[in-house]
Amino acid sequence: MDFSGRHFPTDLMLQTIRWYLRYNLSYRDLGEILEERGVEIHHTTPYRWVQEYAPQLEAEHRKRRKPYGTSWHMDETYIKIKGEWVYLYRAVDKEGDTVDFLLTKKRDKKAALRFFRKAIRLNGIPEKVTIDKSGSNTAALEQLNKEQEKTGQPKIEIRQIKYLNNLVEQDHRGIKRRTKPMLGFQSFKTARRALKSVELCHSIRKGQYDKAQSANDWEYFYSLAV
After folding, report:
1. Of 3.30.70.1070, 3.30.420.10, 3.30.43.10, 3.30.300.30, which CATH number belongs to 71-186?
2. pTM score
3. How much is the average pLDDT of 91-104?
């Protein structure tokens, strides 16, 4: 990861990014905290760091995270952008570890299909997927199964059991807890980048990394930049 040409030291930038993602701090809060430590910085500077570097850290985490199960629990939650609700599709395995996520403007079969295809492309085919009674999610999985059948691949077991999907619904809270203090996003692009970052720290908090390589969460986070 290239930090060359920056006015501030790399370790300070990474620490600031982590503080913002891990704790319920605003960019102005970060500016005040750094000022107390003798660092004069405009509050928009940490914003630019998060937008540029956090998605790169999340991409590196995808390469290193520990394996997850083939039984997925999938659901979508709501995120506000410029006063309008959009949809964050998410899936976790039976242990609660994050499998994948996707921000979309609509909640329909096409959006659900995009999510499943992305998740399968990056993570492999699940044996079964638990969803709620959403017709669009069911239709997307049924189409995938038709495609699987044509290529001779095993079909995905579809389970529509509401109480079993509490696992992913509860997991949404960790994301909403961090996005709520952000007071909404001003564009789809900035929201997508920020959510990659939030999902990164949420995944780290759940221990989705090799503990033999990093002693704790913050050491692992900083190692992603190496």
Report:
1. 3.30.420.10
2. 0.91
3. 96
